Amino acid sequence: MDARLEKPNAGHLPNPAAIADVRLAKFAIGDVVKHRVFAFRGVIFDVDPTFANTEEWWQSIPERIRPRKDQPFYHLLAENDDNSYVAYVSEQNLLPDESGEPVGHPQAPLIFESFAEGHYTLRPRISH
């Protein structure tokens, strides 16, 4: 007899080893965060469960400060005292920004509809 017929869920059960490897992201889309080392902050607009950028980008980071790839990485609408830009940052390098201030990035209003209590809300057409 076919093993799939004996066990109705056979072939549809998640691999227990894969479940153990899943990491939950510490931060959510709309959270305002700041970098642990560098003087910038930003609002999260996307999250990768593990590193998903180019190897060239990875190699450009000095080895002594290069983060692990096996952690969430966040896409930020970032700002510092001089510029607004998009940043890609590992979870280990982010802290909550507790200033309560909105991010002044010019693209924030295109993605988010409101800011309240330190958190942005996505525009409905962009929500997952």
How many distinct beta strands?
Answer: 7
Mean pLDDT equals: 86
Shape, please? globular
| CATH superfamily annotation | Hemimethylated DNA-binding domain
| Rg measurement, Å | 19 Å
| SS class | alpha+beta
| CATH architecture identity | Roll
Taking the alpha carbons of the first and last residues, their distance comes to 42 Å
Elements, N to C (H/E): HHEEHEEEHEE
Question: Main sheet?
Answer: 5 strands, antiparallel
Side by side, the strands of the main sheet go 4-3-2-1-5
What share of residues are in beta strands?
25-35%
Give the helix level as a range of percent: 10-25%
**How large is the count of helical segments?**
4
According to CATH, what is the class?
Mainly Beta
What is the CATH fold-level name?
Answer: SH3 type barrels
Uncertain segments: 1-15
GO molecular function: DNA binding
Keywords: Stress response
Pfam families: YccV-like
Protein name: Heat shock protein HspQ
